[in-house]
Write a structure and sequence with these properties.
Order of helices and strands of chain A: HHEEHEEEEEHE
Shape of chain A: globular
Largest sheet of chain B: 7 strands, mixed
Strand content of chain B: 35-45%
Radius of gyration of chain B: 15 Å
Order of helices and strands of chain B: HHEEHEEEEEHE
Radius of gyration of chain A: 16 Å
Helix content of chain B: 25-40%
Shape of chain B: globular
Helix content of chain A: 25-40%
Oligomer: heterodimer
Number of helices of chain A: 4
Number of helices of chain B: 4
Chain lengths: 141, 141
Amino acid sequence: MTAADITTLLAVREAAFRQRDPRRMSQVYAEDAVLVSPIFGNLTGRAAIDASHVKLFTVFSEMVIETDAPIVQGDRALQTFNGRATHTSELFGIPPSGRTFDLRGIFGFTFRNGLIAHERRLYDFTGLLLQLGVLKTRSGS
Amino acid sequence: MNAPESLMRLFDARARGWRARDAAILAASHTDDGVIVSPIFGTVSGRAAIDTSYRDLFRRFADWTLDAEAPVIDGDRAGQLFRVHATHTDEIFGLAATGRRFEIQGALIYALRDGRIAHERRIYDFPGLLLQLGVLKAKPQ
């Protein structure tokens, strides 16, 4: 894949994300792709990744994401992002809180045969849990 | 100008600097007017201040061990995913040394100029780090 191919593929992924279209989004992953996510853990295979996207758009409605231009070299890319969403369905045993949260992080990709073979998502997961109220701060020890 | 060979030397030197916990080597990889945006240190401007921040880092976390993936280099931009494990050995955020071990994963995003780092942004789960150190205390809802 050329850098232009990778940039185009990531633009398709982002467009699907913005449209909250899990099926279309999952098409940019290889059949045996691996996704490493703070929320979903380690997922293997397009079907599992597709299911995670369905869950993602259910748990967080009104999700919006803005990405920076990807940094691309060879078959790898890094892409920083800003996201905002509202918690509208059960997550980690917590019923929908209606809370809106912001998230900043990075996607790390490896590509193979024109598709995403591996993706790692990194962001302040603990901050997300605090914003959602899954974790609560407390004083004292 | 960021010739590929000079950038490989730059990142090789940084890898040595991280392994040796050598603030001078790491600071030398930044431009004189370089900027670091760090969850721990805030915005650090200028090589002298950057040097001080590395020294502070290695004082507070004496066994700081950073394993970085090969950089992704794309023109005047680059990035690296990393994993750190370390022990809290000196005061930070008003908290005396706890001896606690922690691990973080994240990314370093660079803007490059003249074969050095003009801007570096560090992305990781900062609330998660605070939680592991005990600066932030939390409990499940």
